[in-house]
Q: What sequence folds into this?
């Protein structure tokens, strides 16, 4: 397996672990996006991972093509392993949420069997913005799975016994996250990242 694919598998296993909720569709519709600089810059977490957020571009990387409603996240851990995500912010019910999507999940020039078994998904998290600090909390998949099994929520999904993949479209996803944004249980065992601006 190529080194690049090993790194991709590593980040899928760690960053997109079973403690987050996976979604086939994004959390946002295009009209939900707004121009902002909330994430722009370099941040670090308590594991020593560098989170570098830059605005994305429409085509060629020139100033007039900047997409100020979208970010590219370059993650680099302390062992210099790297990955890249597309990130969007949406504001729902007075709260910020982030939608993550792994942009670079295979290299067209180095396709191998592992590449064909990686399916990109969205994950989403609540964002709390502080002074030079970001707190990102992903919804806990086990919590959601329990709600589904107990018939406490109805949301389009598929369950293969290893994980649940939400298949709800953005409007339905938005109702779900706004309903549970203040639930401690929804985030209790989910992934959390506390970022400090460099």
A:
């Amino acid at each position: 397996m190529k080194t690049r694919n090993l790194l991709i598998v590593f980040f899928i296993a760690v960053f997109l672990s079973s403690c987050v909720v996976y979604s086939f569709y994004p959390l946002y519709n295009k009209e939900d996006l707004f121009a902002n600089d909330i994430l722009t810059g370099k941040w670090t977490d308590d594991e020593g991972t560098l989170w570098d957020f830059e605005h994305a571009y429409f085509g060629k990387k020139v100033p007039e093509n900047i997409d100020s409603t979208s970010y590219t996240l370059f993650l680099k851990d302390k062992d210099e392993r790297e990955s890249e995500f597309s990130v969007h912010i949406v504001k729902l019910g007075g709260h910020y949420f982030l939608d993550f999507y792994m942009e670079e999940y295979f290299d067209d020039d180095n396709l191998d069997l592992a590449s064909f078994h990686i399916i990109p998904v969205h994950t989403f998290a609540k964002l709390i913005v502080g002074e030079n600090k970001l707190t990102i909390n992903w919804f806990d998949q086990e919590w959601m799975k329990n709600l589904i099994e107990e018939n406490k929520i109805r949301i389009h999904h598929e369950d293969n016994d290893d994980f649940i993949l939400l298949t709800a479209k953005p409007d339905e996803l938005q109702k779900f996250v706004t309903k549970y944004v203040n639930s401690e249980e929804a985030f209790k065992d989910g992934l959390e990242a506390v970022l400090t601006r460099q």
About this structure: Residues 1-11 have pLDDT under 50 and may be disordered.
